[in-house]
Specification:
- The complex is a heterotrimer of chains A (256), B (217) and C (222).
- Chain A is α/β, with parallel strands linked by helices and 256 residues long.
- Chain A is built from nine helices and ten strands.
- Chain A is globular and about 55 Å long.
- Chain B has a single domain, classed as Orthogonal Bundle (MetI-like fold).
- Chain B is flat and about 70 Å long.
- With 222 residues, chain C is mainly α.
- Chain C contains seven helices and no strands.
- The radius of gyration of chain C is 21 Å and the shape is flat.
- The chains are: A alpha/beta (256), B mainly alpha (217), C mainly alpha (222).
- Chains in contact: A-C, B-C.
- At the B-C interface, α2, α3, α7, α8 and α9 of B face α2, α3, α5 and α7 of C.
- Chain B: Pfam families: BPD_transp_1 (PF00528).
- Chain B: InterPro entries: AA_ABC_transptr_permease_3TM, ArtM/GltK/GlnP/TcyL/YhdX-like, MetI-like, MetI-like_sf.
């Protein structure tokens, strides 16, 4: 099956430290991919370059037929036009560790902003959509609240609804429960679990919640030092990992 | 015509006045750092009427113009038979005025010490005074350094007001020189440049203090 | 005329100075606000020339003493052939000085908000112009309430300097009165009280407004 998203030879360097070096990844339509690995292994950078929140230094990105080329060291690519970049980004949605809601807008305004002003939806339609999505994440009563008045878990559920409102082909989750109080983690994971069951959207998830990773993943990838060390179905990675480094990491995470 | 030779000839006069300006701001800053701490501690921890009184007094000084305060103190003190040398009066006034700014900075800093640090001090049974002096205040003070730096630069730029009580600081001396020689353009341009240099000097100094006090990450 | 005057007489005498002080302060606020916004935005411009000009303005006026700037307008400009009425000397000197501080505040607030919200703006694909006025500008404005309010207070506290260049403000009127009756302590005392009567509510009002916005948005300081 043709992948919905591909990362080809993606390289990214921060102040001379290479974080990703010729990284490759294919995601199939509706596939749920979970990235695990020690901190500093480049998991978050994979998500951030795929979303083009950070521009890769080198390589190709493609989502649903829109392709971006990076790197001009060898005359590889002309500068990407704004229109292409916008078309590319419209295929993706991202949920951040720190929620990144707009603090001066109500929950409803947060949700309708992009559908109206990016996708060109009519206001009435966008509001209906927002209410449907909020019902789905269990926050129908918070429509007129400001983000500040919500708990972290609730804010994160709003952020998920906000990303969904643009109907992306691939949803990226960047350690979405790391900033939450432990008792709030469950509600957010449950929302993601429900989504993965009922929607055909592909997901790329970075998480430290190993139980959740095992449950939701179609494919689990273990990364270290900017490279994929081992990948496979969760039963294989969590049950009978081949690579000693994968086993060492999981040993620490599961039986600290 | 810009008379550069004139400026070079009179540079020593301006530079010695610059020395007075620097001396006043250094002494004034020392006073305001001490007074600010006292004001902050009283406002935060003293009994209610005393804390309230300190707050009201500090606010009155902070929200009214330094120039009016200079005249007021300079004329009121002799009225009650208290005559201080102008230089001492100058340092007292400017130090007190900026002491009220410093107290706001201290208050914000002290309030921002995490609850956990207070708990840790109690849990480790560290004596109260030592806890404040060695543990709580230092971690509050280091983040305040940039704010104190801004305070010092503001004081530097307001110190010329002291010329109205005969302090021979930079702008007073410069203005006199301009009156006598009619070289207004030269003198005031020079004054502007000297202030530019001094305020960059102060901000370099602040950044240096920030660097040496920084806890390695 | 060396008889003792009552506090009320003093207040009545200096009142015209209050009008001068506040008319200059008011027009300087307009000049300063316009400059703060223009130079603040300009300092972030992608045009190198605009950026350098705005940054130079900000650094020069922030780096020198207001009194020096005031004297420059009063003594030097006429020598260069520009003679301004006292009202305009006060307005321009105060406005240009405050504008440089305001521009630095504007610049800092815009930069901080833009970097906080950058990821979300990209991920939601919001167009640049819309992101600027709908996402970044309102939050930057909220952040600026407190520092801009403090700046306004500092401007008010700078107005007595205008008396030093013969502008008939509060202090000037007060000193006229002292020349007449010699009651320096009480006149300066009355002036102090007048300034406190304006400065205190201003400081409190700004703090309340800021607390109000913070309570609702929270994110104004995030």
């Amino acid at each position: 099956m043709t992948p919905i998203a591909t990362m080809r030879d993606i390289s990214k360097t921060y102040t001379d430290v290479p974080v990703l070096d010729r990284f490759n990844l294919d995601i199939a339509p509706a596939e749920k991919v979970v990235l695990i690995g020690p901190s500093g292994s480049g998991k978050t950078t994979v998500l951030r370059t795929l979303m083009t929140v950070e521009m890769p230094d080198w390589g190709d990105l493609a989502v649903d037929g829109v392709t971006l080329h990076f790197g001009d060291r060898l005359g590889k690519a002309p500068k990407t036009s704004n229109a292409v970049l916008r078309a590319y980004r419209s295929k993706l949605g991202m949920v951040f560790q720190q929620f990144n809601l707009f603090p001066h807008m109500t929950i409803e305004q947060n949700l309708v902003e992009a559908p109206i002003h990016v996708a060109g939806m009519r206001r009435g339609e966008a509001v209906d959509l927002a209410h449907r999505l909020l019902a789905q994440v269990g926050l129908s009563d918070k429509v007129k609240a400001f983000p500040n008045q919500l708990s972290g878990g609730q804010q994160q559920r709003v952020a998920i609804a906000r990303a969904l409102a643009m109907n992306p082909k691939v949803l990226l989750f960047d350690e979405v429960t790391s900033a939450l109080d432990p008792e709030r983690v469950g509600e957010v994971l449950e929302v993601i679990r429900d989504l993965s069951a009922e929607r055909s959207v592909a997901m790329l998830i970075v998480t430290h919640e190993m139980g959740f990773a095992r449950q939701i993943a179609d494919r689990t990838i273990f990364m270290e030092a900017g490279r994929i060390v081992e990948e496979g179905p969760p039963e294989q990675i969590f049950g009978e990992a081949q690579n000693p480094r994968t086993r060492a990491f999981l040993g620490k995470m599961l039986h600290p | 015509m810009f008379d550069l030779e004139f400026l070079i000839a009179h540079l020593p006069v301006l530079l010695s006045a610059t020395g007075v300006t620097i001396l006043i701001t250094v002494l004034g800053m020392a006073l305001s750092l001490c007074l600010g701490l006292v004001l902050a501690v009283v406002q935060l921890y003293a009994a209610w009427p005393i804390a309230r009184l300190a707050y009201v007094l500090a606010q009155c000084v902070r929200v009214s113009p330094l120039l009016i305060q200079i005249y007021f103190v300079f004329y009121v003190l002799p009225f009650y038979g208290l005559t201080l040398p102008p230089f001492l009066t100058a340092v007292l006034i400017i130090g007190t005025h900026y002491g009220t700014y410093a107290s706001e900075i201290y208050k914000a800093g002290i309030r921002s010490i995490p609850r956990s640090q207070h708990d840790a001090v109690v849990a480790l049974n560290i004596p109260r005074w030592r806890a404040w002096w060695r543990i709580l205040l230092p971690q509050a003070v280091i983040p305040m350094i940039p704010a104190f730096g801004n305070c010092a630069i503001a004081m530097l730029k307001e110190s010329p007001l002291l010329s109205v009580i005969t302090i021979p600081e930079l702008v007073g001396v410069g203005r006199q020189l301009a009156f006598e020689t009619f070289k207004y353009t030269e003198v005031f341009t020079a004054l502007g440049l000297i202030f530019l240099v001094l305020s960059s000097l102060y901000s370099v100094l602040t950044r240096w203090i920030e660097r040496v006090t920084r806890v390695p990450a | 005329m060396n008889q003792t005057m009552s506090v009320l007489d003093i207040v009545v005498f200096v009142l015209p100075g209050l009008a001068a002080t506040f008319s200059i302060l008011g027009s300087a606020v307009i000049v300063g606000l316009a400059l703060a916004i223009l130079a603040g935005l300009g300092s972030l411009s992608s045009q190198r020339l605009v950026r350098v000009l705005c940054l130079t303005y900000i650094e020069v006026f922030r780096g020198t003493s207001f009194l020096v700037q005031l004297f420059y307008f009063y003594y030097v400009l006429p020598l260069l052939g520009v003679s301004l009425a006292p009202f305009w000397v006060g307005t321009l000197a105060l406005g240009l000085n405050a504008g440089s501080y305001g521009a630095e505040l504007t610049r800092g607030a815009l930069l901080a908000v833009a970097s906080n919200q950058r990821d979300a703006i990209i991920a939601l694909n919001i167009p640049r112009v819309r992101a600027f006025y709908r996402i970044i500008l309102p939050q930057a404005a909220a952040r600026m309430i407190l520092p801009m309010g403090n700046l306004l207070l500092e401007m008010m506290k700078s107005t007595p300097l205008l008396a030093l260049v013969s502008i008939a403000d509060l202090l000037y009127r007060g000193q006229m009165l002292i020349a007449l009756n010699g009651q320096a302590p009480i006149v300066y005392g009355v002036l102090m009280v007048i300034y406190i009567a304006f400065g205190w509510p201003l400081a409190r009002g700004v703090a309340l407004l800021d607390a109000c916005v913070t309570r609702r948005w929270g994110g104004a300081h995030v």
